[in-house]
Amino acid sequence: MSLFGTLSVGARGLAVASAGIDVTAQNVTGAQTPGYSRRTLRVEQLPPVQQGALFVGQGAKAAGVTRAIDRLLGVRLVEAAGTSSEASTLSRQLSGVEGLFDATNTTGLGESLDLVFDALASATVDPSDPAQRGAAVYAMTTFASTVSRIAGGLADGLTGAEDELAAELDTVNATLAEVAQLNAAIGNLGAEEGPGDLLDRRDYLLTQLAEQVGATVQLKANGQAVVFVAGHGVVGRGDFRPLSLGTDAAGDPAVQVSMDDGTFDITSEVGGSVGGLVAARARIDGWATDLDTFAFTVANAFNTQHAAGFDSAGVAGLPLFDVGGTAPGSALGLAVNATIAADSSLLAFASAATALPGDSGNLEALLALEDDTTLFPVGTARAAASAIVSDVGTAVAAAGSDSTAQSALLSDLQILREGISGVNTDEEATHLLEYQAAYRASAKVLSAADELLRTLLQVGG
Question: Do 447 and 339 fall within a single domain?
Fold first, then answer.
């Protein structure tokens, strides 16, 4: 090899070492960046040249920078992120509602109904006693306010879920747009050796999309990502389809994806936090409906029986509770008749208009409602209240267990990714020393070749 060839080899060595230092520096500074994938300098030897009987090498060159990734693991991680986010969102939403039914710090649904029957039982000792009558009215007021309080909390839960759903979809659309822009910028430059910073940012956003809306992805070898939501393509190359929040035939919120000139309802198939919100809303709405049915049935049972009796003045009983004509909305508006609340003598405990003051015929009939098994499919009113509370507790516990399991699975996959794509700063420090040594050695080659050329020129002169 000529001295000029030696100079070229040394220069290439400097270039390789310099590139290695740059890659190492990027790894060290990117180690704490979410979604960063470790970079590796790919070095290739140039083909040798033949000089007589010898094949003389021309040194090496920096052929590219490779991201340390596993595309299959990346797809699994995206899917797991969506499933975990859906489970955790559902658990969080339901846990917020569970406190409404907690009888630890306030009167529970079943306990407030027990207070009514306990007060009625106490009144049988002396139905004409104003104190006993007042206690009965107070117990009924407590029951009505408890039902109304729980209904109001459920309504707030529904509103909160719907507001969060709308805000989440706005974020999803912004993320979809950025992923499409990154796809276009990446082009077909490759999933491993394309523009690493753009690829890392896009892959990080794909995980966010999975967390937000349960997106799944196809990561292609050419660097392109195709994104699906509920099985519908929403990002392809540089284009995306936005999601929107509409209403279905029943007037409930519906998640829709743009399709040509219209939209397609994907509410039942969406995942991520949006799917968790949809599922939580459906659960809360179901409990609100059950509570309305409970309030409507109990209130009308009391009103019907109360109307069959007579008050202290021998007048037929008024409705005990204010309740709507149909079940929807009955729980939120449930209240004791204001007239009776102001005058407990209007409680119709007597069975006849001409009965003695101590007559408890209708009071006994009101009390018998406690054991009436014909009111609800599950039996008594107390059993119906317990069924609602039990359903809430079971759903919350199941959602919590699922969230814990999915979170553990996601954590395992993240550890796997860290092992493949993460940056070990100790290793990078070692690489830095290696590249520094290589840089100094290449510089010495250049220095030696330069000195030999000077000597040769001096001899030639």
Answer: no
- Of 381, 398, 415, which marks where a domain is finished? 415
| pLDDT in 10s for each residue of the chain, 461 residues | 577 777 888 888 899 999 999 999 999 999 888 889 999 999 999 888 877 777 777 888 888 889 898 988 988 999 999 999 999 999 999 999 999 998 887 889 999 999 999 999 999 999 999 999 999 999 999 999 999 999 999 999 999 999 999 999 999 999 999 999 999 998 888 877 888 889 899 999 999 999 999 999 988 888 888 999 999 999 988 999 999 999 888 888 999 998 877 889 999 999 999 999 999 999 999 999 999 999 999 999 999 999 999 998 899 999 999 998 899 999 999 999 999 999 999 999 999 887 777 788 999 999 999 999 999 999 999 999 999 999 999 999 999 999 999 999 999 999 999 999 999 999 999 999 998 998 898 888 888 877 787 787 777 65
* 63/88 same-domain check: no
Query: Hey, what long-range contacts does 311-316 have (CB within 8 A, 24 or more apart)?
Result: 311/345, 311/346, 311/347, 311/348, 311/349, 311/350, 312/128, 312/345, 312/346, 312/347, 312/350, 312/357, 313/345, 314/350, 314/353, 314/354, 314/355, 315/346, 315/348, 315/353, 316/348, 316/353
Domain tally for the chain? Answer: 2
Structural domain including 226 reads 71-415
> Do 384 and 436 belong to one domain?
no
Regarding whether 294 and 225 lie in a shared domain, the answer is yes
334 shares a domain with 246: yes
Phi-psi group of 314: left, alpha or beta (phi > 0 → left; psi -120 to 50 → alpha; rest → beta): left
Do 21 and 141 sit in the same domain of this protein? no
Q: What share of the chain is helix, strand, coil (3-state, %, to 5)?
A: 60, 15, 25
- Closest by Cα among 14, 20, 26 to 64: 20
Identify whether residues 51 and 100 lie together within a single domain: no
Token readout for 454 is 């000077």
HSE-up of residue 177 (Cα within 13 Å, Cβ side): 8
Is residue 305 domain-shared with residue 369, that is, in the same domain? yes
